[in-house]
Amino acid sequence: MIVTINTYTVRVAGARIKPVRCARCQQDYYYETVRTAKGSSATVYGIGAKSAEQSAANEAHAGLPYELYYAVDPVPCPKCGTLQPDVEEKFKKARRLPIPGMPPALVAEQPAPAMGAAIPIRLKTAVPQKADVENGQLTVQEHRMYFPAACCMCGVPAELPFKMPRSKAYENGMRACPKCLEDLGRRYKRRSFEGALLGLGLGGLVGFLFSLVPDAGGGAWVAGGVLGVIAGGFLALLLPDRLEPKYCTWIDRSRGIVQYRFASQAYMQELAKAATVCLNAGPVLQHLYV
Ligand SMILES: [Zn+2]
Ligand SMILES: [Zn+2]
Predict the structure, then answer these.
(1) Could you report the per-residue pLDDT of 119-173, keeping only the tens digit for each?
(2) Structural domain count of the chain
């Protein structure tokens, strides 16, 4: 009997302006913190899929205010540079400070209008962001980013959403040109085929080695064949993803901090430009609910 279980995961993101009074110089300052919260639910045989999705979303939305309320980020006082003692203690314990390339928080000395207000929020970044384009990597807070209308694989102007062949489309607005998407699909097919062949070859080799054992008989080849089919299927599934470079790596999922790496220098330059604009202009929370 086969039991099918579908799981639903919903992740929501939000931002909050946190007020701080510096323990050393008494300066009041405010910074923006971003957190995500996750909710999940499962169905058996797909029964009640709609309500499962809803309950995952409810759980995520219920958890978000809690995450935001207790969130603290390692943001030093803009006046004297002191990192607040409670924050320092917390981050020391959690071994989360410093995170190399961590995007800076936005800070202000005056309270900013509430998030979502019609007045644009203009907060300064605590430390200017420097994109490490030379090494082909850029670390940003995803919720503050927008993606340029260019192909993330070759850099030419593009409109199609970028999608890995075996995953859902990224919801962050990354784009790709038809040619690169086609090439990616073809690469996946070729690697699947190569993986299957490799698995079958390994199975054949095992069968051959077993057949050398005296009195092994035909059983050795059957065992080798079965092993080959299993290994072939496994490698066909595994190889395409393994051989494709990783474009996005989560550095801190709870804060939406992600590292991007793209081979195209032209695209990395565009991305760095977009990051600078976003970080200097204040929060661009276009993915408030993802
Ligand atoms: Zn201070
Ligand atoms: Zn392209």
Answers:
(1) 444 555 544 444 555 667 787 777 667 788 899 999 999 999 998 888 776 667 8
(2) 1
Query: Can you give the pTM of this predicted structure?
Result: 0.65
Which residues line ion ligand 2, judged by CB < 5 Å? 151, 153-154, 177, 180
- Is 99 within the bounds of a domain? yes
- CA contacts within 13 A on the Cβ side of 80: 11
Cα distances from 167 to residues 176, 182, 185, 265, in angstroms, run: 15, 15, 12, 25
Structural domain contains residue 19: yes
Q: Tokens 């989360």 identify what position?
A: 96
Burial per residue of 60-84, b for 16 or more beta-carbon CB atoms within 10 angstroms, e otherwise: beebbeebbeebebbbbbbeeeebb
Q: What is the pLDDT of residues 205-255, one digit of tens each?
A: 988 888 888 877 778 888 888 889 999 999 999 999 888 888 888 877 777
Name the CA dihedral angle for 158, 159, 161, 162, rounded to a multiple of 10 degrees: 0
CA of 247 to the centre of ligand 2 (A): 14
Give distance in angstroms: CA of 31 to centre of ligand 1: 14
- 65 cis-preceded (ω within 30 degrees of 0): no
Distance in angstroms (rounded) separating the CA atoms of residues 35 and 92: 20
